[in-house]
Amino acid sequence: MAAETLRGQDEALTLLRAALQSGHIGHAYLFHGPSGVGKTRAALYFARALLCESKGEDGSPCGTCDACHAVLGLRHPDLQLLVPLPTFSSEGRTERQAEEARSEARAAILSRMATDPYFLPIFAKPGVHSVEDLARAKQFLSLTARREEGAKVLILKRAEAMTPPAAHAFLKILEEPQPNRVLILGARQVRALLPTIQSRCLHVRFRPLSTETIAEVLVEQRGISKPVARLAAATAEGSLGRALQHFEPPLDGTGKAVLDEGEFSRLRALALDLFVHPREPAILGPLRRGRLDRDRPRFLAAVSLALHYYRDVLRCQIMGERADLENEDLRRQVVADARAIAAGSLTQRVRVLEEIAEAVQSNVTIPYAVASAQYRMAPGRT
User: Fold this and answer.
1) Looking at the DSSP assignment, which residues form a beta bridge with residue 128?
2) Which residues pair with 35 in a beta bridge?
3) Strands across the sheet with 202-205, in order?
4) Cα separation of 204 and 18, whole Å?
5) What are the chain's domains?
C-alpha cells in the first residue's frame, strides 16, 4: 500500500511525511476522525516506514523489502494491531470458550484487514479493548525488536473502546515511554479519551471523505453499479469503511449483508414507510418483515437512507424543484414532500432521526427507538 492510495487525507499525510523526513518521530500519535476514512491505512503506512529495511532518503518505505511485505500482511514481529472485540460472554459459555471466540474473531479481522485496511468489523454487540488486551500490548512493547535498535509499533484501533481499567493501563504505558517504541491510537472523537491520554499524544486529524471519492472506490474495487454506489456513499457520512460495511455480513454470523443490488430499493422503501410516510401504527410488523428489529447495522442503514431522503426534501425547499438529488429516481415524491412538509417540521424530523441513530449505537433497543421516533414525528408534534 503506497501512501498515494490513501485518498482524501493530504493534510494527515503531509504531517506524517514531515516527521519521517526529519527523523523526529513522536512516542505516541492520536489519529482522530470518522471511522473508515483511512486512519488504520495511514497507521500501517507509518509503521512500514518505521520498520522498513531499505527506506528512502525522505524516510518513506521502499514497499519491496521483506519488512514492508510483512507489515502489509500484519505478520511483522515488531508490529501489533489491536482491534476492539465483543466479550462473547453469554449463558452457557465458559470464560475459556469466550476467550477462544475472541481469539477466532481477532484472527478473522486481522486476516481481512491484511487485504483491506478500510474494513470495519460488524458484530451484534459493540467491541471493547479489555485490560487483558492492554497487558498483552505492554508485554509486546517490552520485547526486544527484531533488528538492533529497531522500532516496535503498536496500533490501537478505536481507542475509545477501551474499558476504564484498560484506559488506565494504557495511560501507564504512555507515562513510561521506551526508546524506539511508537504508539498509534485511532479514535473517532478526541473527547472520548481520557484527557491525560489526549495530552500525551501528537494529534493527526483525518477528515470525512467526499461522496464522489467513496462512490469511485465502490465502483472500481467492488464492481457496484453507479446508482447504488452513489447513494451508499451518500449515506456513509464521509466514511468509506461504513459504505463498504453495507455490503458485508457480520463476522459473528448474526445477520446478512445490509445491502446488495437487489436489496437496496427494498430497504429504502422500508425506511420511507417507517420514518417518512408511516402506514402502520404498529411497528413490529414492518421491522420484522425488513429484518430490522435486531439487525443493528441494517437498521442504521435504513435510518441513514431516511435522513438522506429528508435532506433531498430540504434541498428542494431551499434550491427549488430542479435541485440535484441523491434520490433522483424518487424526484416526484421528493418534490411532493417538499411542498407538503413545513420547514420547521422537516428540521425536527432530521434531528429526531439523528438522535435515534445515536441511541441505537448506544444499545437502545431498536423497537423502542422506532416507537420513540414515530411518536415524536407524529402530526401535531413536528
Assistant:
1) 85
2) none
3) 79-82, 152-156, 181-187, 28-32, 202-205
4) 12
5) 10-84+129-205 (3.40.50.300), 257-377 (1.20.272)
Encode pLDDT of 226-282 as tens digits: 777 877 887 788 888 888 877 765 554 444 455 566 677 788 888 888 888 876 555
Pull the grid cell for residue 73: 500482511
Reduce the DSSP state of residue 30 to 3 states and report it. Answer: strand
9, 37 Cβ separation under 8 angstroms: yes
Cell numbers for 217, please give them.
472506490
Which residue from 342, 265, 296, 314 is spatially nearest to 126, judged by alpha carbons?
296
DSSP assignment of 109-125, as one string? Answer: HHHHHTT-TT-----SS
Identify the CA nearest to 367 among candidates 306, 265, 290. Answer: 290
Which residue do the cell numbers 407538503 mark? Answer: 340
| The one-letter amino acid at 239 | S
How far the first Cα of the chain sits from its last, in Å, is 49
Query: CA 232, CA 326: separation in Å to the nearest integer?
Result: 10
- For 336, the 3-state DSSP assignment is helix
Q: CB 35: neighbour CB atoms within 10 A?
A: 22
Q: Identify the residue whose cell numbers are 509503521.
A: 47
From the DSSP assignment, how many helices (H) and strands (E) are in the chain? 16, 5
In angstroms, the CA 137 to CA 35 distance is 22
Consecutive H or E run containing 32: strand 28-32
Share of the chain above pLDDT 70, in %: 86
363: exposed, middle or buried (C-beta count within 10 Å: 0-12, 13-18, 19+)?
exposed
pTM for this entry: 0.72
Nearest to 313 by CA among 302, 303, 323: 323
Let me know: does 62 contact 56? Beta carbons within 8 Å.
yes
For residue range 24-72, what is the model confidence (pLDDT) as tens digits?
999 999 999 998 899 999 999 999 999 999 999 999 999 899 999 999 8
